[in-house]
Amino acid sequence: MKNTLLLLLASIMLVSCTARATELTVSVTSIPSLTVTESPLPTSMVVPTITREPTQTPAPIVLTQQAALDSCRGSAQDRIDKYVTQAYSTNQFWSATVCQDDGIYTKLEKLGKEKVYKIPAVDTDPGTSGPDWFWEPYLWSVDGDYLYLIPRYLGFIDSPWLIYSSGFGLTQLDLSTGARNVLLQPREAGYTFALSEDGRLFAYLTDIPRTIDILDVKTKEKHQLSFKERYNILEMRWTSEGAKLIILTEESAEDPAKGGFSIFEYNLEEEDLKKLVDKNNLNSLYFSEPAAEPRIYISDLSNNVLSLSDNLQQGHFEVNLETGEVIQTNDLITSTATP
Questions:
Q1: Residue 146's CB: how many other CB atoms inside 10 A?
Q2: Closest residue by Cα to residue 217 from 193, 189, 188
C-alpha cells in the first residue's frame, strides 16, 4: 500500500514537470523611461539703459551725392564753392553734378550706363578771365525727356529788383541726344518767367513791353498775352496742375494814391484772361506808392491759395484763387478778410 502511494505521487510530479518544460516563455526587456531635464524658472533681470545714441546711417542718396561731388571737386575751390547752391540733382535715370576738377562744368550721367554729357560754363564778359556763369540743375521734366538748367553767376549781383526775377536765364537739355536749347540767354538783369511743375509749359516776359509769351515745349504751340499800358507785370506762376497762369501786376492810375496791385488769371485751356483781384480790393489793405524798392511779391502758390508778402515785412496776404477773396495776415494769429 505504501509503495502504491509513493508510485502515484511520483507519477503526478513527473506530469507536472513535463508541462512546465513545454510552456512558452516570453522575455520582457524593461526600457528605462526618458528623463526630461527641467529648465530652471526664469529669473527677472534688469536690462541696463543704453545712453549712447544710435549711429545714424546716411541715406543712399546722400552717399551718392557726396561720392559724385568728391569725384569731380578739384583742388582750387575757394572762388567757386561759395556760389554753388544746387551742386547735385537726380531723377530716376539721370544725375547732374556741378564739377570743378577741369575748370567748371555741369556733368550729366545716365545711371548704370556709359552715357555722359558735359555742359561748359559760359563766358559773357571778354574783359574778365575765365567763365562768368555755370549751369545749375533747375527742373526735371515729368516725362523724363528734359532737364532744365539756370545759369549761376560766379560773382555777386546786388539789386533789390531781383526779387521779381525768376532766374538769370534758362536752358533746356534733351536727355536723349544731349542737344541744348537756350531759351533765355544768361544776363545779370534776370528774367521774369514761369515753368510749370511738369516742365511742359514755359511762360516768359518778352522784350516787348507788357507782353507774355507761352510755349508748350511738346507741341511747340504758342500763345501771347498783351496787357494795357497801365499794367506793369511783376511776377507769374503756374498752378500745380499747369492749367492756369497767375500774374501779379502793378496797376497805375492818374492819381498815384489810387494805384495798386492787381492779379490776373489766364486759363490756358479756355484761352481766357481775367482779372482775379482788382487793385481796389487789394488797395484797401495795401496800396502801391512810388518807392525805390519793390514791395509786394509772390511768396507761395499751393492748393488754390496764392500767398503774397511785403518786402519790408509789414504784411502778408492770401488770395483764394476760386473766389478772389483776399485775406491780410499781419502776424501768425490775426487775419482780416476783405469784403
A1: 21
A2: 193
